[in-house]
């Protein structure tokens, strides 16, 4: 093999790739750095696409890196340029624009692609009126169609499908969600929580159908002669009409380039704890396309943690940095839908090895459950009322001993129990933003340096720029600090 250059080439400029580039430049201003992004616009927060769909945010408000930043930091950014081939023998990257770029280290951050089931009607690609929901371009196309549509069918009741349904219902469409499993978001929620979520969605005007096996996408001919989706057929023969059909059937790691380059691929690119491909140590992989310890992490916090660790390793700022796995915590915070789920949520009282404490008030859209084993929290669901989410997340992350009064885990302030989400009682070491690992102490320090709004704190610490669910907590801490400053001292 050639010795190669010392250039770092990043393939993929999404949430993992763009974070790595910014973290790398924060540590090393001199190393040659090139990033390829197949999408033409600046990298954006994919988690917040549903807010754009709902009209709660503009596309420019979810950007992660301003294009001008690349020039200021001497980053060779190839936006809108897709990589078509990796030659590991020569350490070269071939792009669709005909360019060939040499690398010393290659970082693959190609993310995931939407899954479209191979059912009749999807042959040769989705017809007009049917779209996946994965990219900002998908979002733009959905919005264009939504302006002329009345009825929407969302195929898939996982996190992405729920977010799409919520956004479309917020725009006044008649929305039905079809889900193959027995309850919504079955990976994160148990059956009871799934039922409560369905009732909450019903109050928003969203119908849900579970155990609904979509067997075909029915198409017709539009006024302009093009093939167009007109609804879906179920396995029992029922037809559900829809002017707009959203395929939210999940994602799969985008590993085509890696597989063609001869890297070991299981579900994702198999890496070690230094995020090196087990096939070729000059190739690293982060984000949704990577697989460590048999796990592919599909959430933003692990991807950003990997980006930070890799930047430490390649810049030499922390040679001991290692990725040893991450705990996955799902957050969904939208109008009338507030959810936190973590760990092993499907245990029941019938399991003699675990302790389950739960509360349900379906009429008010509330469901709470904690799963305990050996006096440690191994799983939790909070739906509708999530005031103890910060406490549970810390206990889950740190595997800390639990209070003897289990109800305090579900209801804040019971029997004088401390509420870590309260700025007054929250210790400085408590993590407020789990996507970016920002503590209350860091927010306090930021405030003491002059940050007086949540937006100021976000710019300086990145708190609340991930899933956005900690925004209220950041605003609360800033407001509390402001109050402390203005309070009389005598």
UniProtKB/TrEMBL annotation:
Q: Give the E.C. number(s).
A: 1.7.99.4
InterPro entries, per the entry: BFD-like_2Fe2S-bd_dom, BFD-like_2Fe2S-bd_dom_sf, FAD/NAD-bd_sf, FAD/NAD-binding_dom, FAD/NAD-linked_Rdtase_dimer_sf, NasD-like, Rubredoxin_C
Q: Which SUPFAM superfamilies match?
A: FAD/NAD(P)-binding domain
- Principal EC category: oxidoreductase
Cofactor names: [4Fe-4S] cluster; siroheme; FAD
Q: Where is the FAD/NAD(P)-binding domain?
A: 7-306
The entry sums up its family as follows:
Belongs to the nitrite and sulfite reductase 4Fe-4S domain family.
By what name is this protein known? Assimilatory nitrate reductase electron transfer subunit
Give the species: Thermomonospora cellulosilytica
What is this organism's lineage?
A: Bacteria, Bacillati, Actinomycetota, Actinomycetes, Streptosporangiales
């Amino acid at each position: 093999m050639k010795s190669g250059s010392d250039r770092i080439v990043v393939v993929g400029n999404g949430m993992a790739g763009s974070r790595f580039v910014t973290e790398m430049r924060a540590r090393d201003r001199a190393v040659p750095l090139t990033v390829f992004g197949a999408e033409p616009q600046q990298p954006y927060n994919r988690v917040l696409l549903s807010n754009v769909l709902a009209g709660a945010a503009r596309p420019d408000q979810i950007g992660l890196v301003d294009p001008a930043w690349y020039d200021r930091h001497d980053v060779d950014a190839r936006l809108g340029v897709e990589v078509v081939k990796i030659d590991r023998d020569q350490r070269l990257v071939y792009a669709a624009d005909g360019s060939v770029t040499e690398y010393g280290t290659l970082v693959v951050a190609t993310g995931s692609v939407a899954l479209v089931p191979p059912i009749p009607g999807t042959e040769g690609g989705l017809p007009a009126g049917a779209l996946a929901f994965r990219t900002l371009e998908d979002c733009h196309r959905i919005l264009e169609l939504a302006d002329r549509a009345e009825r929407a069918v969302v195929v898939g009741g996982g996190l992405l499908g729920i977010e799409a349904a919520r956004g479309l219902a917020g725009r006044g469409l008649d929305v039905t969600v079809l889900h193959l499993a027995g309850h919504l978001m079955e990976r994160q929620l148990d059956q009871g929580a799934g039922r409560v979520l369905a009732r909450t969605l019903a109050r928003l005007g969203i119908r849900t159908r579970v155990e609904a096996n979509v067997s075909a996408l029915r198409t017709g001919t539009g006024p302009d002669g093009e093939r167009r989706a007109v609804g879906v057929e179920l396995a029992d023969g029922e037809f559900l009409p829809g002017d707009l059909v959203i395929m939210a059937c999940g994602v799969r790691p985008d590993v085509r380039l890696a597989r063609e380059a001869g890297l070991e691929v299981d579900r994702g690119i198999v890496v070690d704890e230094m995020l090196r491909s087990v096939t070729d140590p000059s190739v690293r992989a982060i984000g949704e396309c990577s697989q460590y310890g048999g796990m592919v992490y599909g959430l933003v916090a692990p991807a950003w943690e990997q980006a930070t660790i890799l930047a430490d390793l390649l810049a030499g700022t922390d040679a001991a940095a290692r990725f040893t796995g991450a705990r996955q915590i799902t957050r969904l915070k939208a109008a009338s839908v507030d959810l936190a789920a973590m760990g092993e949520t499907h245990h029941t009282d019938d399991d003699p090895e675990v302790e389950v404490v739960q509360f349900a008030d379906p009429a008010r859209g509330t469901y709470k459950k904690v799963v305990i084993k050996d006096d440690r929290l191994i799983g939790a669901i909070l739906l509708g009322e999530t005031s103890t989410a910060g406490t549970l997340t810390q206990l889950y992350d740190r595997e800390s001993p639990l209070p003897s009064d289990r109800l305090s885990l579900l209801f804040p302030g019971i029997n004088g129990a401390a509420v870590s989400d309260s700025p007054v009682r929250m210790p400085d070491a408590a993590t407020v933003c789990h996507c970016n690992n920002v503590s209350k102490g860091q927010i306090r320090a930021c405030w003491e340096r002059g940050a007086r709004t949540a937006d100021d704190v976000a710019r300086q610490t990145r708190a609340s720029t991930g899933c956005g669910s900690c925004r209220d907590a950041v605003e609360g801490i800033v407001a509390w600090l402001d109050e402390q400053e203005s309070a009389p001292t005598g």
